[in-house]
Amino acid sequence: MTSITSMNIVYDKFFIGGEWIAPSSDKVIVSIDPSTELTNGQVPEALEADIDKAVAAARTAFDDPSTWSGCDPAERAKVMLRLADEIDARAAGFQERVSAQNGMPVAVAAQLEIGYPSAILRYYADLASKAEFSEIRPGMFGGEIEVRRQPIGVVAAIVPWNFPQALTMFKLAPALATGCTIVIKPSPETVLDAYLLAEAVEAAGVPAGVVNIAPGGREAGAHLVSHPLVNKVAFTGSTAAGQKIGEVCGRLLRPATLELGGKSAAIVLDDADLDLSKIGEGLFTSTLLNNGQTCFLGTRILAPKSRYEEVVDAFTAFAGSLQVGVASSPDTQIGPMATARQRERVESYISQGKNAGARITVGGSRPRDLDAGFFVEPTVFADVDNRAAIAQEEIFGPVLSVISYQDDEHAIQLANDSKFGLGGTVWTSDPERGAALARRVHTGTIGINRYIPDPAAPFGGVKNSGLGRELGPEGLASYQETQTIYL
Ligand code: NAD
Description:
487 residues, alpha/beta, Aldehyde Dehydrogenase, Chain A, domain 1, Aldehyde Dehydrogenase, Chain A, domain 2, seven-stranded mixed β-sheet, six-stranded mixed β-sheet, 16 helices, binds nicotinamide-adenine-dinucleotide
């Protein structure tokens, strides 16, 4: 079924209904390494007929309560723990495949694409074995009432390429915990890691049809979203696609979780310690992680007027110090953009920033010492107006804008002057002052001197950053439907 010759990974079947089945056509998705621009694998492309098979398998599995949906949650938890072990056993493969497809530096993949997804799975396995799936309440008018939290049904999970395994697990783990079945549609840019997940699902003995994986493009995704046998859509991706999916789900009255784009603020307070030896790691995770291709990054740096040049100098030194290189090198901090198209998009924003009169203090070009790959230097713009395109639109690359503010009130006003509201950070030597300010920023999540989504806490956005929350117990609830029985 597979052949591997120094990262040329070829699959010719889909994992659907617990089996490896032949595709409906000979169309393929070719994987390209963005560090080298060379092909490194190929898988079949799911078309509508393949999506139909995947949804049918998930539906059949869901509708037989003895398969998964009606099982004792503790039994489901055992299977989930086995799956977490099988995923961990393939950690090196996940790390290599993710980095070779989307350009994520292996050091970043080690932090977030291996270990982290299985931790989410274990967290939800634990919740599944402890959560109350039904309770009896006394009725106000006498008698008793049973309130059941049932699995919502067949889930359509649509995932982007930037953190393919983590973002799949944001959906898969709560779906499994509640008793749902799922069809996962990975992004065409990251398909090889999805097959490792399929192998782990098979090895863990997850019952047939509970997890089905069909990589495909937008058409396949759109077909899945509107499929009559699907009960819930869980989507992570761009705001534009999320809006289209939201429209379809609105018409169908189909529950949807939409995790979309962002343009978060990193608010540097006037008492912040700018010593990069202390804050460099936190700054990296919260502003430039994964080559700037992370939805929650604080790419609008709000700097107090009193310390503006100091903040610009600190970010210039920070961005300039980062090691740019091929994703497979353990020393690399900034790898390539995931695709040539993505690099064009980033470069077009850099041009717009220059044309709008912003000042580049570091970067702004392609690195001169790398002759292949979709690289862009980490770039800092100073003297940026918060209304400028580079301050308002999601660039999704290693580009930061430093914007000046007068006082804390002005910083809050600028932070909230955005159509997005996903992440953000406050940098201060007084965490209580930082938390008080953070509470006034209109965003789904925000960190004080650090930022990393924690499996135990809800993650998601407001405004154009999306609808609903993943992770935490809140993430579990969004895969359940409540049934009331008046006993
Ligand atoms: P994208 O929206 O183009 O694609 C995401 C996924 O949706 C892919 O699998 C794609 O095939 C599918 N898709 C696209 N249009 C669709 C449609 N109409 N119907 C059904 N499926 C469709 O986004 P991308 O370029 O792959 O990812 C980058 C974007 O994702 C960025 O905007 C980023 O901010 C966002 N993102 C958000 C989060 C979050 O949690 N909020 C996390 C990661 C990425």
